[in-house]
Design goal:
The protein has 21 helices and two strands. By secondary structure, it is mostly helical.
């Protein structure tokens, strides 16, 4: 007869689960309110979403304090893992979400924000991303991955334009394929080691001295393909430009930041022990992924005629740039990843939000897409403040000092040199120079060309609400003055990464 096991609440350490439960409770509350009293103003749902994200943020601050004192925390039958990577990435996820939600307080033409389901799905998505980063259990990572992905597919489709439905279907199809690859890769690792915990998998493979290297190769290839889709690495990037174009501009900016930081953290946990194990072919494959993604995405961005698609390919290139941190695999490079992504979050969300101001319900006959370069021609004459802010974001994305992303690029390249990847550092610097061309191209259109006659689609800041102006202004301030907080931010990130053993 099997003796029952008594499990105490204290041993479960439910504190590790609280950051993920808060957005779930918020989402359920929104749905219950809508059932009881439908047709309420969207402002209520914005306030509820922000309130629960603020509570989530405060709980993360408490978790960070406990981690600083007691170190890594495990909980809920040891499937939850709260370490520096989990805390840093959750801060980025929650703060970026808090910047995104107020954008719903914009013009009524963006009808998806009038649905309470939008906010409920958004909070479910945030919870899924938090589950992904706060565990090293492959099953729980998959649960978080699917929770966030299924919500995100629907959020894209709710934009309710022809391209939005197409984008959602493409995203769903590619996401389903990525989920299949992930499941197969996880199955291979479980068959080899008898565990789905990444730390245990690493220990068993090391103890066996990677005797089953062929099977390890199969598992890693499937995992790389899965995360290649999620991070839009070449050649798994094909969905990204179409999905970004079909989604609303701010949702595209959000998608370029939050889902990727979650995927980066999981990739860091999974691939770094393989990198440090001396498996040479994995290093070669990751090297190729990084270089090809950076270079090919930059070349495709050069020939785009639509600013939104240019920014989509730009985001692909930045993902390849940051993937170099996982290849290098040092504490400095891992710290550089988080620093880069914090700075990138301000700049890229600001860039896409600027595109949102200029969205048109009906395109003129001469305009094939919503955000052609000609639409921005002479914008300094029609809307000088908007042109200046957009120019600021482009200079930052290009890595021009002293703006935010320059420091992220500098520290990332420095970590490559320190880690012995001098050639990679040169390739990264060269790609930054190439990217400067298409960012400066938009600046040339805005400041050095005359407005296209008969085009009524210029950016008009008067169409932006106070909420939208505030978010863009906050992003602009962060982009300009990031260097002031750079040293304390970097020290904090490095301490959290180092104390997590990465």
């Amino acid at each position: 007869m099997i003796e029952p096991v008594n499990v105490s609440l204290e041993s479960l350490n439910l504190m590790t689960l609280s950051p993920m439960l808060i957005p779930i409770i918020g989402a359920l509350l929104i749905l219950v309110i809508d059932i009881i009293k439908g047709g309420l103003d969207k402002t209520l749902y914005v306030v509820i979403s922000l309130l629960f994200l603020l509570i989530d943020f405060s709980v993360l601050i408490d978790s960070a304090g406990i981690f600083s004192q007691d170190g890594i925390m495990m909980g809920v039958f040891n499937v939850m893992l709260i370490d520096g990577l989990a805390i840093l990435s959750q801060f980025i996820i929650v703060v970026a979400s808090m910047l995104f939600i107020p954008l719903a307080l914009t013009h009524k033409r963006f009808h998806e924000f009038s649905y309470p389901e939008f906010f409920a799905l958004f909070l479910f998505m945030i919870s899924g991303f938090q589950f992904m980063v706060a565990t090293d259990n492959l099953i729980l990572v998959f649960v978080g991955l699917e929770t966030s992905s299924l919500a995100l597919y629907t959020l894209v489709a709710m934009h309710n334009r022809d391209k939005s439905f197409e984008a959602a279907v493409k995203y769903f199809t590619m996401g389903a394929l990525a989920a299949g690859f992930y499941s197969f890769g996880a199955m291979v690792f479980y068959a080899l080691t008898g565990s789905v915990e990444i730390n245990q998998i690493a220990a068993v493979l090391a103890a066996n001295k990677y005797v089953d290297i062929g099977y390890v190769l199969v598992g890693v290839v499937f995992m790389l393909a899965s995360f290649g889709f999620k991070l839009s690495l070449v050649p798994f990037h094909t969905w990204a430009p179409d999905v970004y174009e079909g989604a609303s501009a701010s949702m595209a900016g959000f998608m370029s930041i939050v889902p990727k930081i979650a995927a980066f953290v999981v990739a860091m946990r999974l691939f770094e022990f393989l990198i440090h194990s001396g498996v040479i072919w994995l290093e070669v494959v990751l090297y190729a992924f990084v270089v090809i993604t950076m270079t090919a995405a930059n070349i495709w961005a050069l020939v785009q005629t639509d600013v939104k698609r240019m920014l989509a390919y730009s985001s692909v290139s930045h993902a390849g740039f940051v993937m170099a941190a996982i290849l290098i695999g040092t504490t400095q490079s891992n710290s550089a990843l988080f620093l880069y992504w914090v700075l990138f979050s301000f700049t890229n969300l600001g860039s896409f939000s600027m595109l949102w101001i200029s969205r048109q319900k009906h395109l003129p006959e001469h305009q094939r897409t919503d955000h052609t370069y000609d639409k921005f021609a002479g914008m300094v004459q029609t809307s000088p403040v908007a042109a200046s802010i957009m120019g600021l974001f482009m200079l930052s994305l290009a890595g021009v000092p002293p703006f935010a992303l320059f420091w992220g690029k500098l520290y990332m390249i420095s970590s490559a040199v320190t880690g012995g990847y001098t050639v990679l550092a040169l390739i990264m610097a060269l790609n930054s120079a190439i990217a400067g061309y298409y960012y400066l191209k938009l600046i040339v259109y805005m400041f050095m060309k005359e407005p296209v006659m008969g085009n009524d689609g210029h950016v008009y800041v008067s169409n932006a609400t106070i909420a939208l102006k505030s978010i863009i202004g906050f992003a602009a301030i962060g982009t300009i003055f990031a260097f002031i907080a750079l040293n304390p931010l970097l020290e904090l990130i490095t301490a959290f990464v180092y104390n997590s053993g990465y």
